[in-house]
Amino acid sequence: MSEAASAQVTLANSTALLPSLGPLLHEWLPRQRWFAGKGRPITAFSLVSATEILPVDPVGTADAGPGLLHLLVRAHQPTMPAQPPADCYQLLLGVRSALPPRLAPALIGHVPDGPLAGRTVYDGLHDPRLAALLLERLRTPGRLGALRFDRGADAVPDGLTPRVLDTEQSNSSLVYGNAYILKIFRRVFPGTNPDLELPLALSREGCGRVPAPVAWFEATAPERLTLGVLQPFLRGAQDGWQLALRALATGQDFAGEAHALGRATAEVHTALAAALPAPALRRAETDELAAAMAQRLEAAAHAVPALVPYVPGLRTAFDAVSALGHRGDSRPAQRVHGDLHLGQTLRGTDGFWSLIDFEGEPARPLAERRSPQPPVRDVAGMLRSFDYAARSHRPWNAEWAARCRAAYCDGYAHAAGTDPRSEPELLRAHETDKAVYEVLYEARHRPDWLPVPMAAIHRLAADAD
């Protein structure tokens, strides 16, 4: 065995590695935007796997270069309802003897003891040399420790300059040469992430509305976890949220774009229904769907007292869904986007709309995000997004939102052959469920925005009359 290979095995398998990094991670991890356990103390860390993607040079090595250490770490926290006791996080740690000034913002800390004693560790994604190495691993499929790298049929060019995107919250992304974007999933779950599974399925169906995965990597032991996906970068594309806000600010109509977005959504739904199983929602499934929505409503009302007066009216939306199954009616269900809104769409320079970020709502369990849902769930998410955009503008432009909502449904109906408004019970229930989620989110994270979903709550509860 070579000296480098020996060092790799020793470091990756060292029982002292995580204890030596623990104090640094305890301070650094809660400050990251993608850390899901904010507000709860970290009581302990446990190591799931450690792999040296680039071995760390021994101390004292002349011209020592950086090392890249891949860790999967569980952060143990006090258990709360509907929250796991230990989320698993993916860390890519750069290791150097000294950190250059240009990498100072990526600093995690200096290791006082253990196998990395005397070294400096930092977020390796911010180091162009290490980010380039990650792309090189994706170019050449194979296994490395607990990791497996795969790619599609198309070759990935080398020599692309990497840069980190600073707009992500729940994940991290690298752009290579304005040609590809690599999404790194920070909080990871057992199983295939929908942001890999669904774009691959859509690619097989020939659906051009979603950039097809070019390469990806996963953990293979002790369980399978999707860690990152490389896709074409839509250079020059603009996201739908910013375009909508610009239209509002300049007094421009957005109905034409909303119609095109509805068409794009329907094309994606049609392709997903063809690519993956699409079961029917019968009595048991509709009861389960309605019960889950009612449970989320009760939990949200307990956390946000402003919701309490509206609970009886809002519950009627979920009762109506349950009644569908009791009448013997069935509705189609299929794989959907799961978290569709204007910020998950991109319009190219040619006016072509694409859908991105198929991960679903990261706060929900992966099994739930991968389960078939009524297609109107995505429609409801987009309708809520038009409402959000309109209410973020002063003065509130109700007519703008109404035109966009109608145009989106028209575009969807034109492409799908079925109008989402023909399922009023399901559409109202999903829009209500989404608004309840928004109330809880805004109350916790952006209290100034709480009036936006509360206005929808008032309208949706009044629909019961």
Protein model, in words:
The protein has helices at 3-12, 17-28, 128-139, 194-204, 240-250, 255-275, 283-303, 311-326, 366-369, 376-391, 398-416, 424-445, 451-462, and strands at residues 44-54, 67-76, 86-96, 107-110, 120-123, 142-144, 147-151, 162-164, 171-176, 180-185, 187-188, 215-219, 225-232, 238-239, 280-281, 331-332, 345-347, 353-355. It folds into three domains: 3-122, no CATH class; 136-232, 2-Layer Sandwich (Phosphorylase Kinase, domain 1), CATH 3.30.200; 238-462, Aminoglycoside 3'-phosphotransferase, Chain: A, domain 2. With 465 residues, it is α+β, with helices and mostly antiparallel strands. The strands form four sheets. A seven-stranded antiparallel beta sheet has the order 6-7-12-13-10-9-8, covered by helices on one side. Strands 1, 2, 3, 4, 5 and 11 form a six-stranded antiparallel beta sheet that branches. Strands 14-17-18 form a three-stranded antiparallel beta sheet.
| CATH top level class name of the largest domain | Alpha Beta
Describe the global form.
Answer: globular
Spatially, the strands of the biggest sheet line up as: 6-7-12-13-10-9-8
What is the CATH topology classification name of the largest domain? Answer: Aminoglycoside 3'-phosphotransferase, Chain: A, domain 2
How many strands in all?
Answer: 18
The end-to-end span amounts to 76 Å
What percentage of the residues does DSSP assign to strands (E)?
15-25%
**Can you summarize the main beta sheet?**
7 strands, antiparallel
Question: Unreliable runs, pLDDT <50, ≥5 residues?
Answer: 1-9
